[in-house]
Amino acid sequence: MPTSSRPRYDRQSLTIVALDVFRQRGYDATSMEQLAAAAGISKAAIYHHVSGKEELLDAGLSMALDALEAVLGEEQATTGAPVDRVRHVMRRVVELEVELLAAVSVLLRARGNSAVERRALDRRRRFDRAVARLIAQAQSDGSLRDDIDPVIAARLAIGTATWLVEWYGTGGKLGVDALADAVVTMTFDGLAVRKR
Amino acid sequence: MPTSSRPRYDRQSLTIVALDVFRQRGYDATSMEQLAAAAGISKAAIYHHVSGKEELLDAGLSMALDALEAVLGEEQATTGAPVDRVRHVMRRVVELEVELLAAVSVLLRARGNSAVERRALDRRRRFDRAVARLIAQAQSDGSLRDDIDPVIAARLAIGTATWLVEWYGTGGKLGVDALADAVVTMTFDGLAVRKR
DNA sequence: ATGGAGCAACCGAACGTTCGGTCAGCTTAG
DNA sequence: CTAAGCTGACCGAACGTTCGGTTGCTCCAT
User: Fold this and answer.
1) Of all nucleotides in the shown strands, which has a C1' nearest the CA of B30?
2) Residue B89 is assigned to a structural domain of this protein
3) B82 and B129: one domain?
């Protein structure tokens, strides 16, 4: 069966392929040859769409960060009781992480070796701090415990959610709703059974 | 001031330097030249102690995994009520992660690109499964909630603890005991304040 | 309908640089 | 003195990128 046409990409579709390969191999361990093989085009063709490897990383990291930051602007994250806002943000983070698994996975492994990575790390820290402020508000109104520093609580909570990109999909059939439930339940109510 | 002597390394001390650089830059993004610069010796001198870059990675990953696995064999992890054993393991994991920060950080970023990394990932999965078995026991005797699958609970709990290597030490003066307390408290009791 | 022009996307070959590693010889600690 | 530890110069392979050229598709004039 002859191949009568060549695969066609644009910047966005190439970024999606790149993210999958970066997720599997790590950004630094992925060569442009490997990326080209995954896309089914030559290495040189990639440079028609992007100026270089880093532009693919930048595009992918932006996808993840744009989505996470947008959560903070949602109505349920900006109005209502602080504790409900924290819950909403946590659920949405889990949902987004499942939806943008590769992009978030690459994001959580950003190191700071380049300006692109450092910008992403800055945005991540700003996101963490915004969550910490929400948690601090919920602590102030007495709905969340205040014996854990809000910055630490935010980091632990976000870490719990974020780490799932490392194992989600590796077995079992847990849906995103059930997963978000588990994360929120453990984060807010803990694993221990209530003593009565 | 003349340098009248050259730094001297052995395999272990070189591994420690390597882990620090691997942690900062990522293993794949760390060149042997950068490693040599960090150690203050020439690149060629490294090969007197190790056969290659991967041997340094293997040594570092083994440090982390040996320590984690040893926790599972401790008396407080093998005897007593299952829920107490889970608590003990969580505390010890946090303590070890602080103590072996660079090694654990490199471990959690292992991808599977080489036999060394795949072995480490296998050992990580076995560790996770052992914790899941402990959690399942505590669920069976009613001390931990059983509406979250034990494998998922284990992954979430370990994820909470493990993620700390990404931010521990980046500000604040939280001691390891207080940190372990925060992790255990959130994992078992959650962030929400009890309703009465 | 057809063929030519134009274009975005693609190609193989080549580039300069960097990579992990090697080697003969030098240095230093015991 | 001796051997462990180290060095600068070097290696072939691979890296990300560039270059001049090709391809397949769409559009438009005839």
Assistant:
1) C19
2) yes
3) yes
A185 is a domain residue: yes
In a domain, A132, yes or no: yes
Q: Cβ of A111 and B24 within 8 Å?
A: yes
Which residue is closest to D4 in terms of CA–C1' distance? B48
**Strand D: which positions are within 7 A of a protein CB?**
5-9, 14-20, 23-25
Task: Find the Å distance, CA of residue A32 to C1' of nucleotide C20.
Answer: 19
Q: Note down the domain range covering B34.
A: 11-49
Q: What is the ipTM of this complex?
A: 0.90
Q: Where residue B35 sits, what CATH number does that domain have?
A: 1.10.10.60
Query: Cβ contact (<8 Å) for B163 and A164?
Result: no
Phi, psi (degrees; rounded to nearest 5) at A190:
75, 175
Share of chain A above pLDDT 90, in %: 84
More confident call, A8 vs B27: B27
Residues B97 and B37 placed together within one structural domain of the fold: no
Predicted pLDDT of residue B166: 87
Q: How many CB pairs under 8 A join A and B?
A: 149
Structure tokens at B173: 């003066």
Cα B102 to Cα A95, A102, A169, B141, B189: the distances in Å are 30, 25, 28, 37, 29
| Domain membership flag for residue A19 | no
